[in-house]
Design goal:
This protein has 196 residues and is mainly alpha-helical. It has five helices and four strands; from the N terminus they run ββααααββα. The strands form two sheets. A two-stranded antiparallel sheet has the order 1-2. A two-stranded antiparallel sheet has the order 3-4. The longest helix is centred in the middle third of the chain and has 42 residues, at 82-123.
Length: 196
């Protein structure tokens, strides 16, 4: 006895095609519609990428600038001795390193996601698990960008007084930031985030 697979959309068995992503069978017409639906979802991700780029750029411009931080160091240097200037130089380098590493990491991740979106769009090569993975990567990048946008991601630590531990007098730390209710500040990636 020959077994046939029925189209999961119209429940007919003529000329069924198999989708290795969702593991369903489709007739030719419904398979074409199924593929178009996947491509449309990928197109929406590509469109949302512009908003994500804007948010990344806002994050870069909204953080406390390196100049503001160095001005704080400079005022403090005027009230202290020569060893304080050495500690200030070390702290300035740490600030620049923290800010640059955050921005560069986000930019690299964004470029990688963008390239994959473009490649998949051009090749029309996308399956459900690709959409799920891309959705998660974009969601994670958005969370990280939110942390980066917050102005309090860098903490200046300065000790003042007659008895100063010169090695601990001034240093810079990257603060751990909780997201709390900051998510609403960025536009979500549509329906994809709510489905995961």
């Amino acid at each position: 006895m020959i077994s046939s697979n029925y189209c999961s959309a119209c429940y007919e068995c003529d000329d069924t095609c198999y989708c290795s992503g969702c593991k369903d069978y489709f007739c030719d017409d419904d398979f074409k519609s199924h593929r178009e639906m996947l491509i449309n979802e990928l197109d929406e991700f590509t469109a949302d990428r512009k908003d994500l780029q804007k948010n990344i750029n806002e994050g870069n411009s909204n953080q406390r600038s390196v100049l503001d931080i160095t001005a704080t160091f400079d005022e403090w240097e005027e009230r202290t001795i020569e060893k304080v200037k050495q500690a200030a130089e070390l702290a300035k380098k740490q600030v620049v390193k923290i800010i640059n590493s955050n921005q560069e990491e986000s930019a690299i991740r964004f470029r990688n996601i963008s390239k994959e979106l473009d490649d998949r769009r051009v090749k029309k090569s996308v399956l459900e698990h690709d959409i799920t993975r891309l959705k998660q990567e974009i969601y994670q990048l958005k969370e990280d960008v939110i942390r980066m946008i917050q102005t309090s991601t860098i903490e200046l630590n300065m000790k003042q007084g007659d008895e100063i531990e010169w090695n601990e007098m001034m240093y810079v730390e990257k603060k751990s930031v909780t997201l709390c209710n900051r998510w609403h500040q960025l536009k979500p990636i549509g329906k994809y985030l709510s489905r995961s």
